[in-house]
Amino acid sequence: MRNLVKWGATAMVCAGVVALAGQASAAEPIKIGAFLSATGPASFLGEPEKKTLEMYVEKMNKAGGVMGRKLELVVYDDGGAGDKASTFAKRLIESDKVDVLIGGSTTGTTMAAVPLVERAGIPFISLAGGVNIVEPVKKWVFKTPHTDRMAAEKVFGDMKKKGISKIALISEDAGFGKSGHDQSMLVVKNYGIEIVADEVYSPKDPDVTAQLTKIKNTPGVQAVFNFGFGQGPAIVTKNFKQLGMTVPLYQSHGVASKDYIKLAGEAAEGVRLPAAGLVVPDQLAATDPQKPVVTAFKKEYEAAFKSDVSTFAGHAYDGLQIFLAAAARAGSVDKEKVRDEIEKTSGYVGTGGLVSMTATDHMGLSLSAFHMVEIRKGDWVLSD
Amino acid sequence: MFAAFLQYLFSGLTSGAIYALAGLGFAIIYNASHVINFAQGEFIMIGGMASATLVAAGVPMPLAIVLALLISMAVGVALEKFAIEPARNADVVTIIIITIGASIFLRGATQIILDKEFHSLPAFSGETPIGVMGATLMPQSLWVFAVAAVMIVGLWWFFNRTMFGKAMLATSHNRLAAQLVGVGVKKVLLASFALSALLGAVGGVVVTPITFTNYEAGIMLGLKGFSAAVLGGLGNGGGAIIGGLIVGIVEALASGYLSSAYKDAIAFVIILFVLFFMPNGLFGKRGTDRV
Amino acid sequence: MTLLKVENLSKEFGGVHAVEDLTFSVEPGHIHSIIGPNGAGKTTLFNLITGVYTPSAGRVLFQDRLVSGLKPYELAAMGMSRTFQNLQIFFNMQAIENVMVGAHLHLNRGFLSSFLRLPAVVRGDRECRARCTELMEFVGLAKYLDADAASMPYGALKRLEIARALAAKPKMLLLDEPAAGLNATESREIDEVIKRVAASGITVVLVEHDMKMVMGISDHITALDYGRKLAEGTPAEVRANPDVVKAYLGAHA
Amino acid sequence: MALLAIVVAAAPIGFTNSYFYDVGVNAMFNAIVCVGLNLLIGYAGQISLGHAGFFALGAYGSALLTTMYNVPPIGALTISALVVGLLAFVVGRPILKLKGHYLAMATLGIGIIIHIVLKTESKFTGGPDGMSLDNFKMLGFTVMGDRMWYWVAGVLLILAVWLALNLIDSPVGRALRAVHGSEVGAEVVGVDTSSYKVLVFVVSAVFASVVGSLFAHKNGFITPDIGSFFGSVHLVTMVVLGGMASVFGAVVGAVILTLLPQVLASVEQYEAMILGVIMMGTMIFMPKGLLPSLLAKLKSREAGR
Fold it and tell me: Where are the domains of chain D?
């Protein structure tokens, strides 16, 4: 009787092992590994990122690949969970033997993979915003999106220009919003601005009028800044309008996708936020080096998926391009060489801005990469 | 000062009415089968997603809503027929796992059949806020209250005034006796799932203009609905409604007066305390163990 | 010395008196039966004596100690043990394990020693198993030694409860309708078991509907009706009591 | 038992790289938590939808104590386990008076409250973005790398299984199972049921906490998500799927549900649907859980011969 139990257990373990072993294979192509949050609360980051990577890998393979080698993409969905991300990162490194890691849609999933990436020694380009991904600098870790700190700085800069000195902060209590909140608190003093009300909400709250009422009743609030993504900011925007609040409403770069405007509807009129040039390609100055890049990317993405491009898709595009350029310069996918070349990336024109990395800056973007945009008549309007 | 309080109250009532509708679905199925259906939130999600997708595809809104309700009911019936019915005599925990499996499946299926994006429906009667003594309320919130009220009255009528409704109630009190007088327990179970799927879908449709929806929207609503049903006392429809309203109002007042970061925690602490002193919820049947 | 004293005991459920102002006592070594029509409050009385319910008024003394308000497990430790009208068998365990739970109080209950399976625990368990085997044989369950409780018939389960109660080595054993639902043969066998239990020096308090059995084995009888004491005395006295005949036998005739 | 040891020892033959070891370690860690949780759910019949919270507390306890207060890892693990045990003891008393779905609700609430605290107190925990910590060092020896963790986890799993088997077949274990069978029945023969329920609640919480501490050291980075409601549901599912009231069943359930997402990762978007179908199918056709149902089938086949 007891033996049966054990045999059963053995069989299960063996079955699992066989199933896992079936996944592993090695081949000629350049292998790109990605772990993204294609499902879960951050799926609207991971989903476009995944689609972008798949589209461009296919496109490049049709064009004959890179350095005469085909590209092979392996993507896993971590569902936004750190522990899953860490296991998938290990799988990509150890089993799939990829040449580069792209991913971590969120700061949490990225950071969960960092310890083993550093140990394994493989170039890793994160698509998440958290500033702690690249500060302090980690040898193998790079990132393409602007940091949440930069978003905060851009917003505070804009406020300062408008003579705003007392604001309310309302943020989502999940990864993106929380990290943005903490970074905002850190840099806000540099702009002579005081945060007089600090409220949070859960990503799936049906209603945040309570928090906003509290803000409304706080004396002296000259503007409200909302840090969050997903449906939360849209609900904040609607409730804001409902309460008849008239001070300017700022959003973060987390809502830089058309979905936000669609969900929030008319209430989104007049909302200001920092965003990459990607959302307003036509309005960029003709001399802007980004203009051709973002125009082309937007066209290709929207043609392929029949949906509006978001800046998150752009992060994945930039990550892929930065890696491929570095590999081309290195002439191989030798991990050490590619890493060195990524670090030497200079003047790359991406969807997120001009990227020039150094040994002390593994992101390479400056504040100029951000534009302030305002929502007018249901569309983005450049408003620097 | 009073205006702020009123605003918190409105906020809480809006959320609370949504939770109450979710909780009511739990209560109906629990009454008929003593099953806690953790896929209840998925009915709400399907109602919202289906109607929003249909409207986006150009179907007129009333038709889209009716279709969404039918889809959700079909899912409810299928769930009962293929997943609950075959496992009727299993342990409570086993059935819980089945319904959790069902909710994972339904989320997965929605994500493939429809998509992963957020959807919204136009508000039923515009988006001009209504001012009440310095506080404001969206017309859609009134819709939610009204629909919740209509649902409650409708259910009361169904369970107390129709033969079939009475039969369903009888089954919940004593399954054997109900069988003896010829009430088909199977039919009752099926009806209870259809009914709570309908209820969930109605809820999903009316709240979508407020909260939006995507394939994962059911998780939170399911959790809050369960909390509402337990707080009110399992199997007590009115209890679930009051439980939902309490949870919503506590959350709103907590974020207004205490801490918005801990509002969910505060709501749970209150539920815990209620349970410590009233182990069967606020209005649950207080059964002494017969030994 | 009186083993059990019940003084002015009352219990009401939502205004209904299930037991009202009841006083009686049980002498050691006796088989003391409680009789009465359905709803007379017999099971409620048992639940009050064994601590399952707390009384609304009055008190219970066991071995001259006030015990009302104590928990069932505390009363068990003092030597009170019982069976149930609605079976309370551990259906998730083997029959013999059910009986071994009965011996709980007499085993090494240290958590760490159980966790680490210390030799003392192993030895204790071995002895316990042997004694519980004897008990099962004593109540006539020899053929169910290896059975799962869930696979046993109703009659056997009734005896299993008795064996379990006996494993606790009680001074007083309360049996709630041990013969209910049994056929005549089984009933006679239970009869035998009760007599032997009493013969071993354990006081038995019995609730039973089977009048033949009650009259045959009881030393003393208390008759209840509507939660109140109707009569008490030896079987002959109670049988002759006109109130009892009217209320109890009359109701059944 | 011996066979479990052989399986643990022999499995690495099929492991071609450290990713397999990593999955193996995760499976065994989950298995240990489930062995503890099964004592509560399967044997004592008390549900908990909050055990991921205890797991997370263990993990964060270790992370905080080692990084902020320089407590040696083994000390941090012990202190965390003691604190979690104490917490479980304090909340266990009132909570375990509840039954069935009410108990499920209360434990769920405890788990969610823990999760919210870990998420919110970012000064200590790093908030939703998580925090990192160092390797597990003890007596000048560092547990590092997936292989070494594998053997540590393997030994601990066998130890956990041994302890659980001991407990079940002891006076204490029988009392626990009796609580499941009939609380009144157990009370009247001298079993202090509420204390035993609290005891097993504490034991299972400590199991989860200890594993949480080790998990944190192994991964080197933790996020509050490990303590989410889904984590708890995941653990309960492992226990129920594998087989309630079966120590090896819990192990099997944990291993399967840890491997499944890895196997299903290749079918990408269909993962959720397949996982849902497997959960429903197993429970419909094997309501007692995989292992007990399979064993019963084998048994009846043998008897039929």
Answer: 2-7+19-228
